[in-house]
Amino acid sequence: MFKSNAVFLLALLAAWPVLAQDAQPQPDTKTDDAPSWYSLHAQGIYTLQGHPQFSSAIPDGPNSMKSHGQSASGTVATLFMGVKYDDLELYANPEMDQGFGVSDTVGTAGYVNGEAGKVGKLDPYFRLQRAFGRYTFNLGGESKSIDDAPNQVTTAHDENNVMLTFGKFSAVDIFDNNSYAHDPSADFLNWSIIDMGAFDYAADSWGYTYGGAVEWNQGNWTLRQGLFDMSRKPNDEYLQRGFGQYQTVTELEERHEILDAPGKIKALLFVSAADMGSYNDALALAQQTGSTPNTASVRHWQTRPGGGLNAEQQILPDLGAFARFSLNDGTKEAYEFTEINRSLSGGLSLKGTRWNREDDTFGLAGALNDISADARNYFAAGGQGILIGDGQLPSYAGEEIIEAYYKASIIKGVDMTGDYQRITNPAYDAVRGPINFYAVRLHLAY
Fold this sequence. Notes:
Layout: H1 2-23, E1 38-51, E2 70-85, E3 88-99, E4 121-138, E5 143-146, E6 155-158, E7 161-169, H2 171-174, H3 191-194, E8 209-218, E9 221-229, E10 246-258, E11 261-276, H4 279-289, E12 300-316, E13 319-328, E14 342-352, E15 357-370, H5 373-380, E16 399-411, E17 414-424, E18 435-445
Antiparallel strand pairs: 1-2, 1-18, 2-3, 3-4, 4-7, 5-6, 7-8, 8-9, 9-10, 10-11, 11-12, 12-13, 13-14, 14-15, 15-16, 16-17, 17-18
Helix pairs in contact: 4-5
């Protein structure tokens, strides 16, 4: 695996000067106030992560984080292409992936690498992860300029507007954003820190879906509404197209300033509608048949609600804080994301300005994850989920996570990050761990 990964990384590094040259902004012959009609960016990410051997009073189960020392690596290369015509923007993100997450992306509810997909492969493979459009209806107010960025053509629109996004993208491209903890290519890595842990957002195994979202921006407020395809079955590579199984997401955002320092508060609600199994039904059937409980055997059409709060606040020009709280219906199986029914996370992000490294960032965060009593009984009886399942749960405890990272800017467009995570009671199992994870991340962006 490492030989293949190394060849892929060397090829990416060799090709990067060409990509970078092509992606550089060209002289604009238009007037200064005329927006560019296209955007082209490229990104490459290499992550190496592992953990030493840790103690476990029980044997490793089917979905356990392996107790022997191990490491895994992965590489992702993405093009961000966009064009604009009047108020319509169109974007596409072809991507090349290769590699694996530690323990094949199972073993902890708050999984340790947001850059690791649930589909690991030894050889590089291509996918079109995003292909979407965005249309803005201007409603007046101050004109706001938006700079060129990945999936953003240079443009301007009214402060008050309605924005429609449609096509293939990730639900968390629109919902649950946070300035300090949301981008595993640049900040934290743990799933339950970069997103609401209990936000079981609609997605295929790579985290993308088909659907649409409407955002109404009015002054300091934004109201968002989304409708997305869910996968055919939990954690599936294939989506149930045409909203045969679907999720609705609503988010209200309030923006403010405290002593001239900006901040945001968001409230989110989601409802999933699909064929899903309840933990108690699976346990009842297992008792009747003398078998191991399996939610797949009791799936039928049901709905599963959840929601949460997401806050961020600048404290000083170089220091920001964030916090999230989320919960969902714990009577039914996790469908797309991970086995978390309640989650609380928060932390700090500090720029390196005060030690003359203004492009560096230090982050420190923690998360507390929990599951319902129904879920505990299911996993204690040997049931398996999409991310966890030790085959038994002799001693339950909440999953506790601490993560710290330092991102250092090497040259413009090249960052190197060192990341440390400590997970106590991994997968809610108090007789396993704690586990110390170490990671190095190389990020190339042009």
